Task: inverse folding
């Protein structure tokens, strides 16, 4: 158990059977009142961001999440299949749990599984992934007043805006945090 005043952004703790990730901490102390600690947290299981208030002496249970490298194998329709690279165990996760992440998964991409007591809480993608363009509009000559961009469909089904000089069949880097074009692979 630790005092709530010791929390810092990036810490994880359990409170009322929920797991929280600390995003921000604000300490408020006035002369006639006990310290109030306002903590902006994200519920790791459902993704909800809330603000919680504690009195200064409150004790909470810190936790440590386990992280392990897993390789994405294939999409079986409603399930995504991953493999542990050391034990070769395969794990299936429902596709609807990883809706955003599935837009960046192609075979042999290595991701980081985040677990707590054998419960899979989510996956961390690499910062950028290389994906192939399968469909792309042809470039329109002379359309260069602003930063000229066109639509492209990637091999995973993700649609991104790319510069005019990019053509169909090329591999590009896509950022996994916002899904935007980042450069040629």
Result:
């Amino acid at each position: 158990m630790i005092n709530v005043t010791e929390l810092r952004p990036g810490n994880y703790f359990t409170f009322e059977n929920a797991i929280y990730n600390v995003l921000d901490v604000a300490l408020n102390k006035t002369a006639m009142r006990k310290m109030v600690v306002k903590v902006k947290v994200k519920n790791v299981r459902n993704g909800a961001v809330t603000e919680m208030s504690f009195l200064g002496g409150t004790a909470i249970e810190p936790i440590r999440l386990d992280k392990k490298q897993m390789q994405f194998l294939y999409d079986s329709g409603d399930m995504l299949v991953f493999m542990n690279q050391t034990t070769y165990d395969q794990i299936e996760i429902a596709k609807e749990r990883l809706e955003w992440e599935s837009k960046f998964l192609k075979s042999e991409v290595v991701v980081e599984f985040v677990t707590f007591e054998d419960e899979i809480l989510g996956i961390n993608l690499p910062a950028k992934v290389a994906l192939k363009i399968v469909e792309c509009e042809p470039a329109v000559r002379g359309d260069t007043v602003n930063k000229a961009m066109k639509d492209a469909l990637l091999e995973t089904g993700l649609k991104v805006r790319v510069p005019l000089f990019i053509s169909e069949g090329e591999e590009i880097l896509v950022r996994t945090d916002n899904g935007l074009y980042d450069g040629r692979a």
